[in-house]
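Need tokens for this chain, all 433 residues.
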Amino acid sequence: MRSPANIALDSGATPAAAEAYERALAAFQCWLSGADEQLSSALLEAPEFVMAHVLQAYLFVCSRDPRRIRLARPLLVRAASLLANERERLHLGAISAAVAGDYELATTRLDELLRRHPRDSLALQVANTFDYFIGNAKRMLDRVEAVLPAWPSDLPGYHTLLVTHAFALEECGEYERAEHAARAALDVNPLDVRAHHVMAHVFEMTDRADAGFRWMSEHIDRFGVDRFFTTHCWWHLALFHLTQGRTDFALNLYDNFVRADHSTDIADLIDAAALLWRIRLRGVDIGARGSELAAAWAPHINDSFCTFNDLHAMLAFVGARDWERAQQLEAALVASHSQQTRYGQTTRQLGLPACRALLAFGRGDNTLATTLLASLPALAHRLGGSHAQRDVLHLTLLQAIERIRRPVRAPESKRRRSTAGVEMRRIIELSAA
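Here are the structure tokens for all 433 residues:
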């Protein structure tokens, strides 16, 4: 049975193309692989199938990678030339805004679509994805709760509504309700990776690392292989290991799952940078891993697109002690911070000071790192991402404070051979090691 989101959304479709589209949508909404192959089949069968073009474009624009987002442009041009109904045109308008980097306009257009068609689960999921990118958790929750009354529980695709609701609840700190909604989604569809992901966040944010570890281990067959967000789920499992002090297990997951294929996908690079930094904060020697990851981030130094990306690139560069690339990124941020764009604003308010704090921390200037991190404005959530991801800044602040309280002193023989300035630099370097 077709999901209610797509009734009358079949301009240019044939029955066979519509079935392929439904399979693609189901994969996209559950974070399963295979959506792109199903869309290719749908468009081969029906080249003028508007919603197949729309979903194909969403696969690209629901990303933090500007290179990937640009791939949606020819799809948008093609779809805009086709005969489309009102709902399809609203989807196309949202894609057009997203390609231009205007997530506020994109969500405005999707909200208009949802006011007219509250059962469009694709519009709901994409709008909440864009709000996740810009850190607007309250709007995520308000949006999904506005459409809840339009969805009877026996409607096909109901689990997608539940899991969208669950993640918004979790990001707004309503962990008990989030867990209830995620479990309800899994009762409907046990293969919904998004619901397993919400459970991981709930365990993380409620300090139940042991329960989270057990959950992820017991359900690993649901997310562990051949899934769209496999790397991120392994990242969550590694965090549970770290919380319990098992740094060797976390490093093993980094090597064998998070960074096994040296992916260049931005989402995978973000997870790798955050995990490797956390492992390093635990005093573990990361060896050559840092240099490999820094090299993978290097092509994104001048993206000038996403502050959340910039932060994780700096984690990679500082973690590898790759000062040349770190300084190149800092220079790129300085060049962008005066732009009258959303990116310019987040760079001024958050990106530049946060990245400078990481640089100071890496070089052993813990006082400056503490000052910069503690001075980040209350709207630091506008970096985007989840609470669990942004927590890396808090962990770094705590480490910097601890280093100030308990500094590592240089050996006496080295102090005698040094001037006061050189002595201080040695101590700083040792404390950052």
